[in-house]
Sequence to fold (834 residues):
Amino acid sequence: MSAPAAAHYTSTGLDSRKIAIWAFIGSECMLFVSLISTYLIYKGRSIVGPFPHEAWTSPSGQHFKPILNIPVTSASTFVLLMSSLAMVLALSAVQNKELPKRTTGDRILGSSKLWLWMTALLGTTFLGFQAFEFTSFVHEGLTIRTNLFGSSFFTLTGFHGAHVTAGVIWLLTLLAIDYRRGLGPKDALNVDIAALYWHFVDVVWIAIFTLVYLIK
Amino acid sequence: MATTALPTTGTLTAAPAYEGQSGIWSWLTTVDHKRIGVLYLFTALTFFLIGGLEAEIIRLQLQGPNGHVVSAELYNQLFTMHGTTMIFLAIMPLSAAFFNFLIPLQIGARDVAFPRLNAFSYWVYLFGGIFITLPILFNVAPNGGWFGYAPLSTRPFAPGLNIDFWVIGLQILGVSSLAAAFNFITTIINLRAPGMTLMRMPMFTWMSFVVQFLLVLAFPVITVALVFLLFDRFFGTQFYEIAAGADPLLWQHLFWIFGHPEVYILVLPAFGLVSEVLPTFSSKPLFGYPVMVYSGMLIGVLGFGVWAHHMFAVGMGPIGDSVFSLVTMLIAIPTGVKIFNWIATMAQGQLRFTTSMMFGIGLIALFTIGGISGVMHSSPPADLQQTDTYFIVAHFHYVLFGGSIMGIFAGIYLYFPKITGRMLDEGLGKIHFWVNFVGMNLTFFPMHFSGMLGMPRRIYTYDSGQGWDTFNMMSSIGAYILAVATMIFVYNFLKSRKHGAIAGANPWGAGTLEWTIPSPPPEYNFAVLPTVTSRYPLWEGDERDAESARINSQEGKTADELHIVLPYNTIKPMIVAGSMVIMFCGLIFAKPLIFIGAASMVVSLYSWLLSPLEPEHH
Fold:
């Protein structure tokens, strides 16, 4: 997007933006480690329900099921994992934009617009799942104020969702550029950086899915 | 040693070779790391004076028993803001002033990796600093201590706006530090001149490099702690709600996982500065350079493993206490290594006792005292006697004033000529040093005794007859002497900026790369990118070092004449920073501001990212 930095001398030969995004990801790791640790420390400490994996009956006799819906979240996890695959294909399409496309397969694989759209759509689908999950939790009686589980769960997954949202906006921005002037090999680094961020957000979700949803 | 001859006095002007770069607009739009460094320096010194004034009022209150200069409520605001200001608005940004000004010069670069992001960091710092400082004028300044312990800082216990300003203000300042840290990590990894290998980097750049990693890893943790507190206060979450089953130690753990690395964030840049000062005025290379690098790294790593020594009094049990006690004792080893290496650097050198050198030696002496009382706290039984007393206040002022501030003064006296082109007055400088040295010790040494006699921290007044009166009087007199010392410094600073002797490229006969270029440096820093063949190119380099030094020390050429492409000036980073702060203000003042700020931030951010950094290359 900005002027090519490659025109400048660098000690490593890498573009500076590539190093900066890794430093940023290192910092983001500590952010999610803190959020996930708090969730785990508070696991089982809530005084009132609903609880993630156990049923609960309130003193007034109201019954609450275990609230986490693992089949639905498995589906949304699969969607997010597939978005990473689409992102890899989008980057490869941008990098190889100038290679000749002989077959229909070449043309499909070589379409950066298709794969960027696919990544953004899968990301949005994941967000849709999350919106569905949050609303159904609220209907079942769990809000961010209900108990420690609610506070730490919504904050952790909400932060992750905000990261996915930022990623989708980033992808849509790349798409806008692609439609305006076409993304080519000289833009590969910009797409590469967006991809690194996207995969990172995906990996964080794998950690969250395992630690929050799967482990009882 | 073969010293490369450079003009040391030479030219008649000390005016920077900046074309059309004067007036307030040029400062608002600058992306030049040197000018941003100067902005940091002036802003941070202003906050240093504000934090000092707060300390003076505290000492006035405690001068004698039953003082009532200020109310208990205002006293709480004063000690909270004194700590917050000195840590986040004075010492960290003073270090940042040196990161900005020096790192590109020391590694032979024309600027930092992301010049506009650098401007953004500064503006966020300035606006965040104003945001957190102004409330004291309206009696609603933060009042929960610089550590803001939750649950005491949650809404039920702290209902006013005070803590809101603190939580949001620190969140804003965190953005500034993180953006700067990404920038400097990239700069140091990627913009070193040919031949400037990692193990040839000047020690200040090395210690700064370690500090950037501490920032990157420590700040997200306090961000999360503050987000929890913010959500508790504004949205009714229960992170710190003990009645809901919350852990009363959650905040303390998160805060100190950040807070202890923060101590090294404050002191390592000063260590780096002193590691430039001592070789320069001992006329010999730093002793044990690799060990200095490794001990700096080790301090950084161990710094993440000692946080709970701030929490011995909470009853973690014998295993937790023992582990954190041992790691705390361990961290004294790399720190001690540094002390001995500095002393060995001076041994058998040709010592010149300039003001800068005196502050440097002062750091070694005073930091060692603070370090020794620190090792005393590492033993939990001893710590239980000392925790929350003035003994602790004495300890951390010996490391922060005796360490960080002394190191920063040493750095200012060393680098003022490079920054302004003029020398700071040495006569006034030496008076400043001695008044400062006497005032510092008279203020903080007696606190060891008042602490041992049981005087608690953070009390706004005390009764007589507890044996604390004399020591408090001594501390207060010391604090007034420190005020005099600071005034001498401010006078010297302002006077020498206009009337100091012309410095020339290398007034001290120092050995590192920043001294090969004119003072003040031209906009582009280096007319040719230097080729580096040694740690001290001006002292021990071969003919390639000498050749680049000869070319780079010449003055008067403009960037255009040399065909050097420089980034455009731009106001956009400042607008993004301002919009972000407006967005945060919305949480306190009026909700619509959140959306106005966010919208303005998105628009200006896109405008920034879509505009080119610099003219097309020819």
User: Anything to note?
Assistant: Chain B has one domain: 24-569. Confidence is low (pLDDT under 50) at residues 1-5, 7-17 of chain B. Residues 319 and 325 of chain B are 10 Å apart (CA to CA). The domain at 24-569 of chain B is CATH 1.20.210.10 (Cytochrome C Oxidase; Chain A).
